[in-house]
Amino acid sequence: MFILISAGIAPGLALLSYFYLRNQMSTEPRRTLLHTFIYGAIITFPIMFIQYVSEEEGTFSNPFLSDVIFASSIEEFFKWFVIFVAILRHVEFDDPYDGILYGAAVSLGFASVENVLYLLSFGIDTAFLRAILPVSSHALFGVVMGYYFGKSKFSKDNKQLEYLILAFLAPVLLHLSYNTILTLKGHLIYLMLPFMLFLWWFGLRKVKQAHRHLVQHLYENNKI
């Protein structure tokens, strides 16, 4: 069991470390990141409970509504809610790149618990594929979410509300696309490869943009 749990958590911690080390201008407190990761892990259980009740009650007669639209929306909403309530106004959310880190942390906390539960049910043989697909995709959904949270907090163009909405809608649309591809049959499932390449390109583009915003923010505040 220890091996399964380690295999389930390791990809999430590795990806979070990657985005943490990408920030060369300032160092975010590790304790706050760990707390955010734990928040993401905790929300796994109410999400699973809501999904279970919805399935048992037959809330959605169409599997696409249940497995794609509802699942994507509720997962991203809980992540968004955690950052909005617990992190956005935190004193240590003090530069635009922090959004990337906190978005990735809450998403990877959720993805890690989900991954552990999946591996406990289906075995370690699926660990590599899950690290490449579900775990990394959640990380990138979180990166995009966090980017727009950073824009909302530090933007000076009076579009704070617009960016807050994009912090929810952008990852939901990406998650919807990911889940939709998973439902495809036959050769259409191979659309996952170009989608993941796009997702990595898009996520890393947001990382670079956040880093530029960070440099500008430090310059304007006479910190560099």
Automatic annotation (TrEMBL):
Phylogenetic placement of the source organism: Bacteria, Bacillati, Bacillota, Bacilli, Bacillales
Functional description taken from the UniProt entry: Involved in the degradation of specific anti-sigma factors.
Domain of life where this protein originates: Bacteria
Membrane topology, as annotated: Multi-pass membrane protein
GO cellular component: plasma membrane
Keyword annotations from UniProtKB, A to Z: Cell membrane, Hydrolase, Membrane, Protease, Transmembrane, Transmembrane helix
EC code(s) of this entry: 3.4.-.-
Pfam families in the cross-refs: PrsW-protease
Statement: the UniProt record of this protein carries the keyword ATP-binding: no
Designated name of the protein: Protease PrsW
Membrane-spanning ranges: 6-21, 33-53, 68-88, 100-121, 127-149, 161-181, 187-204
Protein's cellular compartments: Cell membrane
